[in-house]
Design brief:
CATH superfamily of the largest domain: GAF domain
Shape: elongated
Order of helices and strands: HEEHHHEEEHHEEHEHEEHHEHEEHEEEHE
Strand order of the largest sheet: 2-1-5-4-3
Number of helices: 13
Number of domains: 3
Strand content: 25-35%
CATH topology of the largest domain: Beta-Lactamase
Structural class: alpha+beta
């Protein structure tokens, strides 16, 4: 379209920051201004003669064609936004104004590069989304999923892995991984090695197959045409973990790395907030010494179990367990020995019941067992016998072999009551009556 008569005008147009594109009725480019090279990466000579739609981001092509048809129907277009794939494979966000020249059968468009604005908007939206997830996600698993979804809107992601460092051992755990090809318990190589490289180097790294070969890192199947981006999760206490991304669509750029590093600061804040909440929740629900549910957690589970049997029918049983002569053992072997004993009792009691049952520590040397979905009262007695048989074997405490006796009181729903406190009192009273008789016994009725 360039001629001698329009050359002076073309030289002025080439000074514009916005790009001018002229396309014929078949969608072929017939003229572009110099700014197109800055925006799209192609020289004017490379663009002229190409079909414009070929450069449009695949997901935007259908609506771009529809918009072009409206323009060709003499409906001027303002502020239409779509995406283009640049020559280097990166994505440009473009805002168009366009009109149709009926006489020349040409579509004339003015393209403005709004990529930076879009990236800033996406960044702010990502930070807000992660901040909201830190407050609203029900647990760490839900938080990791939200972080994954948010980052996937900013960067190409096939695989997404969160690795968290154990502060005691220094080892990495992988609480969240979304893999395109499999869902193994641990990430396959080279992901695990890359996570350790990022963790120990405490800096962001970008990898392709050549870089991994140079570092003698293992390559997995399908990794020849893959790119990896890993960033450390840096907190005030040091590196708490790693975010690792894999792309098979396009290589990660330095800008991608900078973006992920920036977002990672909010990710760290969100993870630490959720970890603190999880610790506080566990402290409120579980006994710190034994790891068993505490009184509050047990009452909640008992209430749930009672609601279930009232609705569906059936029986449940409570076993109230108190260790015999615990004070004497504590005085003899010290508080350390007493704590060791309580942990050993907790483990042995837990081994005597099903996964669906609950063993809780109410405090001191008092434990309670909730047996759900029992058929006959004798089922509870059989569990008692199993417990007594288990504790007939001595426990090793501070290098000493100790035989531990216990008093056990039983209460059954609905035979001994239908209310939570009524059942607990029945089991407690029966346990204390047995202790008064010398312990080492159990009773399930008056």
């Amino acid at each position: 379209m360039k001629t001698d008569s329009c050359a002076p005008l073309a030289s002025v147009i080439d000074l514009l920051l916005d790009a001018i594109c002229v396309v014929d009725a078949q969608g072929n480019i017939v003229y572009v201004s110099a700014a197109c090279e800055r925006i799209f990466g192609y020289t004017p000579e490379e663009m002229v003669g190409r079909r414009m739609i070929e450069m449009v981001y695949p997901e935007d092509r259908a609506r771009t064609v529809a918009a072009a048809q409206e323009v060709m129907a003499s409906q001027p277009l303002l502020h239409f936004e779509n995406r283009y794939v640049r020559k280097d494979g990166s994505v440009a966000h473009i805002m168009w104004s366009a009109c149709w020249s009926t006489d020349n059968k040409l579509r004339i468009g003015v393209a403005r590069d709004i990529t930076q604005r879009k990236q800033s908007e996406a960044m702010q939206a990502a930070l807000y989304s992660i901040s909201e997830a830190a407050h609203g996600a029900k647990d760490l698993a839900a938080l990791y999923q939200q972080i994954h979804q948010t980052i996937a809107q900013l960067l190409p992601v096939d695989d997404f892995i969160v690795a968290i460092r154990n502060t005691a051992s220094g080892e990495l755990a992988y609480p969240y991984q979304a893999l395109a090809l499999d869902s193994t318990a641990l990430p396959a190589e080279p992901a695990a090695s890359l996570c350790f490289s990022v963790l120990h180097g405490a800096q962001a790294l970008r990898f392709n197959a050549d870089a991994m070969r140079a570092l003698a890192l293992p390559l997995g199947d399908g990794d020849i045409r893959a790119w990896w981006l890993g960033v450390p999760l840096n907190s005030s206490e040091g590196v708490i973990g790693v975010l690792l991304l894999k792309s098979t669509a396009a290589p990660y750029t330095e800008k991608d790395q900078e973006l992920l590093q920036f977002v990672s600061t909010q990710v760290v804040t969100a993870i630490e907030r959720k970890q603190l909440y999880a610790r506080l929740h566990r402290m409120a629900q579980y006994d710190e010494l034994t790891g068993l549910p505490n009184r509050a957690c047990f009452r909640d589970r008992l209430g749930t179990a009672l609601a279930r049997v009232r609705r569906n029918g059936g029986r449940i049983a409570l076993l109230y367990v108190d260790l015999d002569r615990f004070k004497q053992i504590n005085d003899t072997y010290g508080h350390g020995g007493g704590d060791q004993l309580l942990r050993a009792v907790a483990d042995r009691l837990t081994a005597c019941v099903r996964d669906t049952d609950t063993v809780a520590r109410l405090g001191g040397d008092e434990f309670v067992v909730l047996l759900e979905s029992i058929v006959e009262p004798e089922d509870a007695q059989r569990v008692v016998e199993k417990v007594r048989s288990a504790f007939a074997q001595p426990l090793s405490i501070t290098g000493h072999s100790l035989e531990i006796g216990m008093s056990i009181g039983i209460a059954l729903y609905p035979e001994d009551g239908e209310a939570e406190m009524q059942l607990l009192k029945q089991a407690d009273d029966r346990m204390y009556r047995m202790k008064a008789r010398g312990g080492q016994q159990s009773v399930d009725c008056d």
